[in-house]
């Protein structure tokens, strides 16, 4: 019976060693899972960013070449796909402005303030421009 005592002590040590190994494997698996989820999220965000950059470039080209109607519909699609993206709202407002749709441009800009209030310094300047154009295009009173 005494010969089993050292063997039982060794088995107890092995048991604790296996517990620590299992805990280490679980920790490594959890770390791998955490990293994989974050890498996938970063890849999705980069894909969205690349898509936005290409959309922005496409819209700038359309607006620069005077294709305002095409720019308007492209910007509307972009706003529908990414409603929290300020650049999409800016592009849509520019397209409305080029088409002479001043009230629609004003609506888009006020909507932009709800999405991105930090853009107020740029939006306010555009709203002032729109107001001055509204006042120029209003019919004059006959006296």
Automatic annotation (TrEMBL):
Pfam families in the cross-refs:
TPR_19
Record's keyword annotation contains Nucleotide-binding: no
Transmembrane segment boundaries: 16-43
Q: Where are the TPR repeats?
A: 86-119
Q: Which domain of life is it from?
A: Bacteria
Asked if the record carries the keyword Plastid, the reply is no
Keyword tags: Membrane, TPR repeat, Transmembrane, Transmembrane helix
| InterPro entries according to UniProt | TPR-like_helical_dom_sf, TPR_rpt
Q: Which PROSITE patterns match?
A: TPR
Q: What is this protein called?
A: Tetratricopeptide repeat-containing protein
State the organism of origin.
Lysobacter spongiicola DSM 21749
